[in-house]
Amino acid sequence: MRLFNLFSRKGLFWYFLLTSIAAQAQLGSWNILHLRYQPGQRLTLFGEAQLRSLAFYHQFHYYEIKGGISWKLNDQIAVTGGAGRYDTYQAGGNFVSPKAQQEIRSWLEIGMRNHLYQLNIDHRYRAEQRFTKNGYRNRFRYRLGVSAPLYGWGSPKKELFASVWNEIFLTNRAPYFERNRSFLGLVLRSGAFSYSAGWVHQFDYRLTDEIGRSFLQLGCQITLGPSNKEKGAPEIEEN
User: Of 15, 40, 56, 162, whose CB has the highest number of CB atoms within 10 Å?
Assistant: First the structure.
């Protein structure tokens, strides 16, 4: 019944309108399923799967599966560690072999959240250890995000947020800059479920790991556990 209510006539209308616009704009697709379990106020366990395509739900070329653990030092700072597998295929079709990149990755990060009036301001500092078929690589990422409530601020049932963020990717090898990624969209939270929809734009210094510039992102986050009492804007984990 919950899922039926979420996909009401109005919701289906906006879904088909958004996907029609994305198809006409020749966007790729970026799909995220994120699961979180919060057994306590400070501890969070999470797992995530992603599937991406270079054309609108066609030419699927990338997937990732990862998981990790996060610990809140206080209401504003959390430390996170995780690991996962990331596979990128050749362009021109669906999972065309041979793979362009195969990677096992671990990471450590610090997340900081501040509030300015009703704005949520997020900082994420991440250090990645990348074990690829071409050897070991380091990467360092910084993301700045801002979200603002559009309605239902403080409501325990439904909240809608506008969300924007930008992330820069750096390495310890020349030319040091690797990638810039930005997002503009909406996040809807209804109970334990959070949904995101928006536009991702990506610029790469070298188009070797993943080609494609713009994507329609659709995400679903499910948060479970006795301490699922998150306030403020939810975050769809993105890697």
Answer: 56
Q: What residues make up the domain containing 136? A: 2-224
- Whether residue 231 lies inside any domain: the answer is no
Please give the C-alpha separations between residue 110 and each of 137, 175, 179, in angstroms, as whole numbers: 20, 25, 20
Domain count, the chain: 1
Read off the pTM.
Answer: 0.85
Could you tell me if residue 107 is inside a domain? yes
Give the C-alpha distances (Å, rounded to integers) separating 178 from 2, 134, 184, 209, 233: 42, 16, 21, 10, 29
- What CATH number corresponds to the domain at position 210? 2.40.160
DSSP state of 195: E
Domain assignment present for residue 233? The answer is: no
Strand partners, 109: 80, 126
Only one residue has tokens 């379990």, namely 37
